[in-house]
Design goal:
Distance between the termini: 38 Å
Shape: globular
Strand content: under 5%
CATH topology of one domain: 434 Repressor (Amino-terminal Domain)
CATH class of one domain: Mainly Alpha
Amino acid sequence: MVKKAPNPIDKHVGSRVRMRRMMVGMSQEKLGEHLGITFQQIQKYEKGTNRIGASRLQQISIVLSVPVAFFFEGAPSANPEADGEGFAEGHSPAYVSDFLATSDGLALTRNFMRISDAKVRRRIVDLVSAIAGEELEAAPAPMAVALRSI
């Protein structure tokens, strides 16, 4: 029996559940208690392994204090041939949502937003950009990697 890969929208919705749960400081166990399900089921939802039904998503939105639409923000297009139309129109790339769904991304964002001085925040952005640029410059070009392996 071949395992079916999770649907990209199910994975996205699950990652948004995880991100919001972490934003409010709630454990998987606690969310499961509120919903009357196990933390293992929450894990499956968050990974996109199990699809979240409409009524369950409504319950989750109430517990996490967000509208249901929150879970679909930035979702991949349901129809990639739709020429830019669909769920993803005008939203950030998936890597932004993926990063924000991590504990590091959430902590970085939360702490960054606590900095009230706009100049300090700008300097932090410049610093991170410089560090990222240095890492990019230090990384070997794909062609160099390919040539080294010959």
